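Quick log. Single chain, no ligands specified.
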Amino acid sequence: MRLKPVPEPPADLDALREYQRAVPLVPGTADDCCARLRRRRDLPDRQTANDWLAFLRALDLAEDTSRGFVRADAEPTPERVREGLREEVLFGPEALAALREASTDDPLTAPDLFAATRDRVPRHDRARDPDWEATWRGRAARLLGWLALVDLAAPVGDGTESPENAPGYVAGDAL
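-> predicted structure:
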């Protein structure tokens, strides 16, 4: 099962390491782990912390054991993050396939990725969120940001993109 949460990508893998370090070494409940993540990473709410916990699990940087959640004994290397994005994150493979088809003349944008996956957004997400399209467009943008963080995507453009003119991406060196 691929996981849906995709938090805002950090500036670098050192920042990701700090999120991982916020997960306890001693197993704890989801509530305990989320409270600790909120405290240590100054997260705004429990849902954001829960998203981070799920995402860290997708990257094999946290584990859900029979005794609770615990920090994995693994480093957040580019290879580990790439593998998690490819194998464990919903629409990761679709994003990578679209990046392979993108070019500097026709880069992949978050709206493009959303359009390509829109029909496969889980029905319950559409039903419970009246603004689900904006939510999933934002998720597409964050997913592309994560792919760029580990060189699976490369941004194109002059850096003056706006929400109306979303940044575009092509396949990165690691793809």
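The first helix runs from residue 13 to 21.
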